Queue: 4 jobs
Job 1
Amino acid sequence: MTVIVRDLRPEVRADVEAFVRVRRLALPFMVGTPESVLHDLTGSHPDARHRQLLAESDGEVVGTAQVRLAHDSPEPGQGSVNVYVHPERTRRGAGALLLRTGEDHLAAAGATRVYSWVLDEPGNRAFAERHGYRPRRSAHFLRLDLANGPLPPLADPPPGVELRPGADFAADPRPLFALDAETTADEPGDIGTEFTDYDTWLTETWRHPLLDHRLTTVAVVDGVPAAFTAVHTDGATRYATGMTGTARAFRGRGLAKLAKNASLHRARAAGYTEAFTGNDTDNAPMLAINTWFGYGICATEVRYARELG
């Protein structure tokens, strides 16, 4: 068996579909479409040095990797390589070759530390540690049965609070950029993120093909966007929360929970049957909120890191 690694060719539909298929088999808790894969590749900021790699074994795509520099982090030199191999095609060397190719690319781009998410399973963790990676933090994937599971009843917003769809901000999404930037800065994680480039945010976030502007929901207090839940959907049955947060001045009032509940009810009415989200294992407040909604943990990933050089 011969394994090779190459770049995904965006103009070749079979490459894009193979990337989506393998990622779905290896990580069924993420929402992805061919359009989102293409957008991630072609819409990324040039400084991210973004690459999407495919591993082929005798002509069959058996693995993928997403490689990028954290160009929007205040700490330079950080990158990530996330490798996923078809569950029935492991132990052929595809994962190791994808990882090495990604590391070489990041090293040439100036990275000094590489992060990688690894499913919390013995074989996957052993693979990471054999390649010099050490565990850092962990995060849960959570799933909610939207078709059959109960949802908390809808509640009327308190006086002065209005729930609006993200689509209402289509003419001027800058207030949502400011809200996203503030809440993302406070998100637990290894790599800090600073949203300072509005045009990049428009391209990478607001215009992302997965972002559902109708189901994305914003809690507006006296005319000011105060909390939101950003929603990704595949346009068919799968719904995922991309980010849920509240501006610092409005925390402790249940606004994010109010927005997310309204969004979930509308998603069910629109025919979505599965809802996914993810939380850092140390983010107790958000885990409690998602448990209240009826989400259950379906898998855990561990963030590993390795120093280059």
Job 2
Amino acid sequence: MTVTVEFFFDISSPWTFLAFNNIQPILAETGATVRWRPFLVGGVFNAVNPRVYEMRADPEQKAMKRSFGWLKEWARLAGQPMNFPSPHHPVKSVNAMRCACALEQDQPALFRFADAAFRAYFGEARNIDDPAELVAIADGVGISGADLLRRAGEQPAKDALRANTDEAIARGAFGSPTLFVGGDHMYFGNDQLPLVRQRIVLLNAGESGIAANGG
């Protein structure tokens, strides 16, 4: 049976941008399938990890300044652009993530939109909270931006974003990206992708007995 990776993501997260790209060769190597799951990381922080806001309130904090440096090293290692923090940081991502939820049932279209939006924000420092930018991003990957923005403003997309966020919280998420491998095994962040790969390999081999994340 093919292993499925659920990838809960928010386009405003730089570590998620890296993981979004770095998981691609793992999927290709292992034959796992992926289900992209847009959610609102701010909703997760509000519910279970409010300390993030305390750290952001002091940009001169040593740990925060160090993390930005490490982030750019990780980006260099991955061969990805990282113009961050940009003038729009921290960006409000609710409009972008409602657009993503409007596309969730069309996974290839969601992938194209998310990939372009990540690159617009982190590579080009564009404001992904600006509806005009979101229209341009969608148009650039063959999706009608005006239609997508309309759908994103309707109740089904809003309800889907809330439902995905609530589901992630209920399953133990505390940030973005949160990944579930084979349904039960949760991993967090770009740096845990080697563990994601290991879990996929184990499940492909019919094994699930190593202790990790309560799994």
Job 3
Amino acid sequence: MTETVIDTISASLARLTPPSCGSLTVAYSGGVDSTVLLYAAKAFASAHQIALSACYIHHGLSTNATAWQQHCADVCQQLDVVFEAKSVSVTPTSRKSTEALARDARYAALFAHCKQRHAALLLGQHQDDQLETILLQLKRGAGPKGLAAMPEYQVRQDVAIIRPMLSLSRKEIEAAATHLALPWIEDESNADTAYDRNFLRQDIIPLLQSRWPLISETAARSAALCAEQQELVENAATEKLAAMSKGADRLDGAKLAALPLRWQRAVLRQWFAGHGMAAPSQAQLEQVTLQLTAKADAQPQVTVNDVVIRRFQDDLFWTRNTRSAEAISKQIIYAGTVTIVEETGVRLLISDSEEHGTYQLEPVSLNEKVKLQGRGSSKPIKQWMKALGIPPWQRQPAALLLLEQTPVACVYPAGVLRLHALPPSVQVHAS
């Protein structure tokens, strides 16, 4: 049994480790799973001349954490493995569980360690962990992507993640650790069934396995099938997304609306993935697709975290919900040595020139009438912006750039309307 477990891990590492990978890091907690993984990884790394390190994350959530850290350091010293401990802080909030916050902090620290060492990250999750993940995803009402659970290999934040133990059960891993007399620790929080994963592990999965002994194995097979189907859907959705993209932040609304609803949602999920964000909920996706059929003069928008999806001229726009609505403060600018002035929504660069004078930024109403350079008539600024196809959310705050009290440009968050020819010494940019 012991040889089978170690051989299985070594075979997985040989199959999953990128050929160019010269360094591996084990996420080492001191528990039985990561201990067996560390032991197998040490043998593999030595045989293939690959650098190996172990990283322990100190969450500070248990009074035993410091003792566990020392245990991990001692084991690594015995195995001649480079060891590093990283401390993270977890502040409970009402919007996210402590378990989720600890997981996010742990991965952030592990990714930082791996990037510093140019290492792939080895995780000790196994077949029973996979079953827990599938059941949790079912509880959340997940689709194929969620039910695909944990992949053997993935890349997150430019770090390769390898799970070489997904085909092994907890019993097999514990038996191997006992046979090899490997020292490991038990986290007392694993017995706390207030956490969903522990509730499944302690109360539900043993009952399922007593009825269906192979359920972890068959559930893992279902997860692999879901992952395969999800990959096909994502590839097709990516092709459709490319056909309707007008840049990274704009989608052709007519082309998107022409697709069946299920493909609209698939394309939108890929749009979010392309921006490095998790897919919105089903309810949020429905709100986004409803924008496509809103009245022509409507300005619908859907907020997802700090992103606002807006519709304008039938297209969907990806925008950030970070700009303040307050007016641009008045700023007096004197020509002379190169000067960069930062304001809300505007950046001015004024260089040395004989065109000396006083420049001034003043907030302006979009109802103010102006005449654009080369245009014969005066119109309200908002009418010029509408005619030029400037989306409403990019129009404010706006300010007039004055040279000796004469308006020479209207500056707004996405650009500049030139009212008169500017001296060569003045460059005006939207920030």
Job 4
Amino acid sequence: MSLTLLSKSHQKFQYRHSLVLLRKGSDPGKKLFLIHDGTGRIEGYLPLCASLDPRFDIYAVILDAAVDGIPRNIRIEELASRYVEYLLNLTEGPFYLAGWSIGGSIAIEMSNQLEARNAQVKLCCMFDTPQPGYYPKGSVAAFTVASEYEFFKRFIKSGSVQRELNAYESMSMESFCSQLIDAPAEAIDWEAFFAGLDGEWPFPLVKLGNLTYIDRLYLLNINRILHHARTEYSPHTVGTYPVHMFQAMIDPIPDLNEWSRYCSYFTIHEVNATHYSIFDPEPKEAIASQLNAILEKECPA
């Protein structure tokens, strides 16, 4: 094995284009952009698309290829800057953006960067997006080879592999990850590693299905990279566009109104769902009804 397997995992879970057209609308001048969530995926939006304003083309913004499964310290501002280029290469606007969870944080940063470039942002929607500070800055350590060794070391069963990886001070992150996945499968207790995370991680990895441990590691690292990015993020400017928050009210995130500090116009809409069930059939229809009313207001027929 080698890092090429991580590359294959990347190819397996990646789309071919930066923007994916999820649904064609009746008016080519109207486009709604949905930003990937904290897993790097866009499929969660599919149930919602069919119920949204039929005038709009609905595009998904996929995870940037720089987030490749190797733990790296990436900022939301960097991702947003790349995604803004995708949008501007497609249209001059006006822009309508939305995102679930971390996707909402990226959407608001994109909206600010678009406004800074004199583009018209008509709307930014967030689906249960934790406010800056909900995950305190510094609560997740930056990625280093040393921190990755600490993350894995208690699951290493082979003495020889333990000694090889213990020489991490001389390794790059790529080299460390390569040695980790090159190790014989029985040398690392992957089952215990993932089972422990299923009890601690917000999105249980068991839900990922029957995947190889390399595929699961790739997807886990995507989530870790994006989670670290959001702990470091807060908007630097206050946008002039309206922001609408759809808050899941079953075990709700407290103090979501803190987002109003970063928005000129901020409205919360309550949804009878959990964070992870927000696009289930019943809450999805409630969201679509409210979002369509908002789209009609901001973009009358």
